[in-house]
Task: structure prediction
Amino acid sequence: MNRAAKPRTTYHWRISHPLHPAVPVNADTWEEAVAKAAALWGVPFAKVAAMCEAEQKTPMTVTTCPKCGREGFNNSDQDGWCDLCRKKWKAERERVRTVRRKYWYELPKYNGGR
Ligand SMILES: [Zn+2]
Result:
């Protein structure tokens, strides 16, 4: 995995249309947002594009997980690791700690009694 974890900004949109319910989509551009909304409504992009309105446009930071390359949103801690990798890392750290604790706890037993 040689992808640079360079954060980029995308937007969270809420696209509305007179004939369709407003839908939330994540997209970099207005065109992409409308295309995604049209796909959610199951209608052709060209048919709805002109009448679409953005009720909401919120910037979001997209981070690429340096471990697995998955994209996540606003993961500022753990060097931009995704939730999955962070969970794995936490589990692994906990496992190592338990092993270490056990080792130091049991060490005197092995050293002593000789
Ligand atoms: Zn990951």
Residues 37 and 43 are 9 Å apart (CA to CA). The beta strands are 8-17, 20-27, 53-64, 71-73.
